[in-house]
Structures are given as structure tokens and as C-alpha cells.
Amino acid sequence: MKFRYHICYQILIAISITSCSISKKIALDAVTVKENIWGSKVYRGSYPKLTDIIHTRLDLSFNWDSSFVIGKATIQAKPYFYSSDQVILDANGFQINEVALVKKEGQEKQTLRYTYNGKQLFIQLDKTYQQNQEYTIFIDYVAMPYKLDAGKDIASADDRGIYFINKDGKEKDKPRQIWTQGETECNSNWFPTINGPQEKMTQDLNITVPNEYVTLSNGTLDYSSLNGNGTRTDSWRQELPHSTYLTMLAVGKFTITKDKWRGKEVSYYTEPQFASTARMIFGKTPEMIEFFSKKTGVDFPWDKYSQIVVRDFVAGAMENTSATVLFERMNMSAGEYLDENHEDIVSHELFHHWFGDLVTAESWANLPLNESFATYGEYLWDEYKYGRDIADLKGMEDQTAYMNTIKSKHADVIRFNYADREQMFDNVTYQKGGRIIHMLRKTVGDEAFFKALHLYLTRNAYKTAEIHDLRLAFEEVTGQDLNWFFNQWFLASGHPLLTIQTSYNIEKKQALINIQQMQDLAKTPLYRLPMAIDIYADGKVERKEIVLDKQNQSFAFNSITAPDLINVDAEKYILGEKVEVKSVQQYIFQYLNAPLFIDRLEALLMLKGFKKDKNAKETLIKALKDKNWHIRQVALEFVSELDQEEKNSVYKQISDLALNDETSHVRAAAVKVLGSAYKASDNSAIYNRTEKDKAPSVVKATLESRK
Ligand SMILES: [Zn+2]
Questions:
Q1: How far, in Å, from the CA of 490 to the mean position of ligand 1?
Q2: 355 secondary structure, DSSP code
Q3: CA of 177 to the centre of ligand 1 (A)
Q4: Fewer CB within a 10 Å sphere, N or C end of the chain?
Q5: Cα of 604 to ligand 1 centre, how many Å?
Q6: Could you tell me if 78 and 132 are in contact, meaning their C-beta atoms sit under 8 angstroms apart?
Q7: Residue 573: which pLDDT band, with cuts at 50, 70 and 90?
């Protein structure tokens, strides 16, 4: 799932406003005020499996006026292991009309005794069933999601499970829609089931709606039948097992734009007026499916892939199996798309179809097995499609997002002591987890990494997994014991705080590196950190591999001449904070010679502290032409600090960026610089053109700069 207001984009940048949010329930101020709410002494393990639901058939219609779901559920189940004469189903706030056992022959029914406490239905079976004895129960019910009190029956109004949007049609400019949001445990607000990620089933949903509406659910549309009374029943069939929180339906007036991937339907459901931009927004999906299929070695496993944009969604997006629901910010114009294309949401939800939907975290404590991977899916796609430079920008945003929130919270990534399961949906699970997956990849190497993912996905397909299943897959592939990695990163909190000192011993002709781990070892592990060090000397660069595993550790490498630069953590992959002092010359050398985006960004940000240095200034000006748009944007921020003559010397460059840069963020930033660092009258010809830019951010910047 992607949340709506991601903390990273509040704090971080104007770069991009994506949709995720830290947690739909915990207000940000609560994070700092009530630190103790994050922890609980209760161990949150996996839910016990008593009954196994094999298949659920739902026959559903809706009373729009009262926002009721009129349902008939036919549930095929069996005891999971221990014999039992009882079934307990989650069913929140229902009116139960009938509970019966369906006899195999001729659909004959036998009424069953039950008790119902408003949250759970305790059904007494006709006899004791053994492990492999299946039975089918029938429940006639009415679900009343809007009678559930937020704070009492459900945690918040975002937990209604099913939503009736503009139910009476009185809201102008808003279509009538019904859609669902199951994660975490909200689907039992509209059909009787067993909550929790551990329960997997197949399903048939027969959805009856007025004929003018379109429906969407998981799996394939088997058939539609007209009922002769202005309604139609659509029968959706999900034949592969998936977790009950992934069951979805949506109803509304949507236009369906269709693509294909290897013969399977790939479709985009949008309101009719946004159909013309649907392919612009979602059109890379088939290429993404192909990419993730190849990268994991597991072909996209589901029958089809649909994405549907609804109104008033409670999250950013949700990866319901083969039917992802997205929030209305995906209803974009071509101009808005230039400023923020939300492609990371598309890749995130799609990657969940391997990590989350195919192999599902067995408990909410193990949620990073879903969310860290989906977050890393965004990186993988960016790396493939746009190159490492752009992917590393995304990686940096993730790291910054995690760093900016972690100060108020010490939480393990795999967390068995959360106070509320919704707290698992945070920057530790998403962004820190995503970065840990990246470190795992860098630690074992690409070939082993993707082989191990393949093993994990195939071994646990259509089942659930816990973090150790991931470790075991990596250990089997690499032949290495990886407890150290999983223990320090997934099963602990915090991150390394490194103090790095480099020097050169002229007599011994040695480059010296001393690294100290300064993190609070009472709360945080002493880390084992394999890393690369690049030594630039004598016109060459040599890479050395080290393993840092002590609190205070020194390394020495022969070097005939004093190095121009010693670049510690040369792959720039370690999640942590570091203190490192380099000279202006070394930072300039780093900007000009080290290969990665992070190398250049780090150097540039440090050079901004040397405003008086002529060479530092020259490098900052050079960075206006950097190949990475974010670095060009950072370099632009420095222009106002130049003296007038220097400003004049870069005027042409700034106006070129304002008019022609390929990225709207840079064009907008350049327009702002024109407004703040130069006379308005000089810019009017440029403004005349930038006010016609297709990107709203550039138009807005022009209006502000003209003032
Ligand atoms: Zn997600």
C-alpha cells in the first residue's frame, strides 16, 4: 500500500510529491508527543490458523441510500490442523439473517446454531470435522459499514472497508462510486471472513449493480448477466489463492483503456474525462510487468492487471491482487504529469504482485516483506528505465525520509512489539526497509541477489513467509551465513553513525583510513559493514574491499603518492550518518571524478559551505550543467550567493535552464532564481515564454517571479 501523505515529501523536497504517507492513523505530532505509543510489551506474533478458508463466493448488491451491503456468502472451509466443530469468522457490525450448512447434494441447507457479538460470528457445525474434511457454510447478511463508529467499532473513518462515494448524487462534480480497502483488517466490514494476512483463499464475486455502472474485482470477469430490472450481475472469478485483505471490488462509471502483456489484459479504469490521459499515466505498465517478470525470474502470476482511479481514496494506492486501486491524484492533466508523474506508485503497487500478493508477510510484524520490497521495486524500475543516477536519487530520498523521522522513534524493522498494527506502515518499514534490501543486494552481489529472490518467490508462492524465509533463501543461494546481516538490519533498530578520518603517511607511503562507530551501542548494534574504498592517486583509481566490524578500526593501503581522494563507502550504499572532513580540493576532485550521483551531490552540498573559495564557486557553476536534474536544481540554489559580476556571467545559463531544461522542476527553480537574483525588467522576455510552459510549476514560478 502507498499512503497518501508521505512524510518524506513533506520534509524533503519540492522535487516530487508522491502519494505515500507515514500512517493514516497516527498524526505526525503524536509521534513526538507520545513516543511510548510506539512500543508495547505484548508480543505480536502470527495469528493461529484454526480454520482454513478454501473458497469464498459472495453474491452482493447494494443499498445506496443506507450504504448497506446486501450479501450472501458461501464459504468452503476445513479445520487447519486440529479437529473442530466450530468456525469463528470476523464480521464487523453485520445483521445476520441466516447461517446454514450447505449439503453437497442439491444445495440443500441445514440451519446451524451461532452466536454473534457484533464483531465475530461463532458458528456451531453439525459435527466435529477432521483436518481434511471440508464443509460449506452459507451466511445471509447485511453489512452496515457507515454504522460503524470510528474510534469504537473501527479505529478510524479510514477503516470502513467499503465506501459509498456521493451515495445520493448530491455532491456536484463527484461521481457515484463504491470501492473497498481491505488492508489491514477491514474487509470483514463487508463480508464474513478471517482477518489477517495468513489466510489465503480463492473467490467468486457476483456483483449486482445498476446497468450503467462498471464493476472491477480480482481475477477475471467470467460472465455478466442482465437481470431484466435495470440491473446486471458481473461474476468475477479469482482462481489463485490470495490473502483475504486483498479481496476488492469497485463500482462506478469508468472508461476502460486496454493494453496487453504477453496476451494478458492490462487495463486502466478512469473516469471518462480522464480516459485520454490514462495511457500517458499508466502506459508503461506492460513494460514494467515484463521487467519485473524477467528480473525475478517469476512471470507475473495473476490473470490480468487492472489499475483503477477512484475518488476520496483513503490511501495513495492499494495492491489488491490484479486490481490496484489508486487515489484521485492519478487523474492528471498532461501538464501536471510533467511536474509529478507518480510512476513510483505504479511500480510500487505492481511489484507488490510478487512481494505481498504472491508471497505474503505471514503477520503484520513481518510487513517489511511486503512494503520494503515494493519500495525497492520503485528503485529497480528507475534503475532499469532511467539509469542508476536517477535510481540513486530515489534511494537518497528514501534514506532522508527515514533519517528525518527516526529521531523520534527507535523501532525494529521486523517489529513484534507494535502497539497498533497500523504503526507498521511507516518510514522504517518502507524507506529504511527498502534501503536494507539495497544493502543486501550490494552485500551478496547482483547475481546472488536475484537468484535468492527467485528462490524465495518460488518456494513460498501462494503462501506466506516470515523474515527467516528470506534469509534462508539467501543463505541457500550464497552458501553464506547471513544471520549477522538480518540481525543487525531487520531485527534491530537504529543505524550506524560513522566518523571517518583519512590521511597519508609520507614515510610509509600509505593511505590511512580510520573509522569509528559512534552510535549508541546500548540501543543500536555494533555493525558489520562490508564496503568499498576507492583510492584516487597518481591519475588512477584503485578499489579496496574492507569489512568494518569494530568500534574503532584502521586500514592502511600502499600508495606511491598522496591520494587526491579517498572515497569511503564508494558504492554509497550504507544506510547511516557519517562525519567526514575533506578539503575543498578533495570535494572538488570528488565532484569531478567520483562516478555516482551521491558522490557529486555530497561534494556539492559541502562546497556550498565554502562560498568565498573561487574554485568551489567555479565547481558550483559547473554543476549547473550536471547530467542529473536534482544536482542542477541544487546548483541553482547557490546562484543568489554570487556577487553581481558572477551572477551576470551565468545569466545566459540560468535563462537557458528556465526555458529549455528537460525537467520542469529545474525550469521552475531557474525561473525563481531569475526572479530573486536579477532585475525583473531584464527577464520579461523570458517570462513571456515561461508563463506558457506546459508544466504548472513553471507557470506558477513565473507568476511569482514577475511580482
Ligand atoms: Zn505498498
A1: 18
A2: B
A3: 23
A4: C
A5: 33
A6: yes
A7: very high
Confidence of residue 19 (pLDDT cuts 50, 70, 90): very low
Residue 370 alpha carbon to ligand 1 centre in Å: 7
d(CA 34, CA 37): 6
Model confidence pTM above 0.90:
yes
Q: What is the pLDDT of residue 105?
A: 66
Q: How many angstroms separate the alpha carbon of residue 447 from the centre of ligand 1?
A: 25
Predicted local confidence at residue 680, as pLDDT: 79
Cα 633 to ligand 1 centroid, rounded to whole Å: 29
Distance (angstroms) between ligand 1 centre and the Cα of 352 equals: 7
DSSP 242: E
215 C-alpha to center of ligand 1: Å? Answer: 24
**Model confidence pLDDT, tens digit, residues 91-108:** 999 999 999 999 976 679
Q: In what order do the strands lie in the sheet with 231-243?
A: 109-111, 94-102, 135-143, 68-79, 51-63, 200-210, 231-243, 220-226
C-alpha cell at 179: 470501492
- Count other Cβ atoms within 10 Å, centred on residue 467: 18
pLDDT, residue 38, reads: 56
Place of cell 541544487: 634
Q: Are 681 and 650 in contact (CB under 8 A)?
A: no
Taking the centre of ligand 1 as the mean of its atom positions, its distance from the CA of residue 314, in whole angstroms, is: 14
- Determine what percent of the chain is predicted with pLDDT higher than 70: 94
- Over range 109-136, report the average pLDDT: 97
